[in-house]
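Interim report to the steering committee. The following record documents the input for Transposase DDE domain-containing protein (365 residues).
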Amino acid sequence: MLSRQILYCGEQLQGKLILDATCAPADIKYPTDLGILNQARIETERIIDNLYKPLRVKLRKKPRTSRKIARKEYLKVAKKRKVSYQERRKAIGKQLKYLKKNLGNIEDLIQAGASLENLSKRQKNCLETIKKVYEQQQSMWENKTQSVPQRIVSLTQPHIRPIVRGKAGKTIEFGAKLSVSCVDNYVFLDKISWENFNESCHLKEQVEKYKETFGYYPESVHVDKIYRTRENRNWCKERGIRISGPKLGRPPKNVSEEEKKQAHSDECFRNAIEGKFGQAKRRFSLNLVMTKLPETSITSIAITFLVVNLCKLLRQFLSLFLSLFTNNRTGELIKPPFINFDYNLNNFYVLKLIDLSENSWSKVA
């Protein structure tokens, strides 16, 4: 009880914190079980070709891969507009058999004297990924399930996982999941994970990070429904922090106008972070991360939010700069003679923006 009084009376509450999560889709083909198995089969055929080259004299015949037959079996189903469950399952079973055969041939070549040093670094990594893909797909095929822990959906980017979003148009996205906070229209990237996670578990950590950065707890935390758990509500209440949204339990029959106004105001204020997501995805590159490695992808995502914040800072500097030339009484813009307010990008080589030498507008001869 004493600690609660200290938190209420001794510490200052200031500012508003907005929390939300989003996904940064990666540049991969939409994954299907049949498609990833076909791609894995093709890669193992290339690996067999490379491993067999040094053993041409020792081994008379190259191990059979049945690549032409396997490709025909794949295209027979892949080109159909509508595929039944039985047809798809049968095709996946065939591709699993071809892939198992190729992996066995690779082991036989290694025992015969072939070295993995003949493979490139990419092929070595791809071979390890293919083995995991085969185990996952074989397990799903045998158990007749559609999910498996840490499911691989891309051979070239095995770190990517399916992120269930449940939104209209994009039920599942493939990429990194981000937990983001927004303060005064500046965005802070708090967590990046390739695995799916519940963002409500990070509310305490984000609020504590706010206090560590600014020196005090926020007056209010604006979040959506998933954050409003009983644990988070009690934690915020102990620190005197107001969390947006209705209370848990059955909604009251009579809601005062003041509460309705407060709820509407909170929801409008929370829309700021949705606007930041839209700016990062539509204006910048967050809607499709083109980098391939997990390290470079994380760097690309972080730089995107850095640029979003720099744009906000630039607008503030521009507003401050223009305010220096505003008449405080009339509000009219004072036009200094050395600044061309009619500057046109199409006439970049004709007009000068600033001419400090003559202190007047001039044209380039």
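The domain at 2-26+159-317 is CATH 3.30.420.10 (Nucleotidyltransferase; domain 5). The committee is asked to note this result when reviewing the revised timeline.
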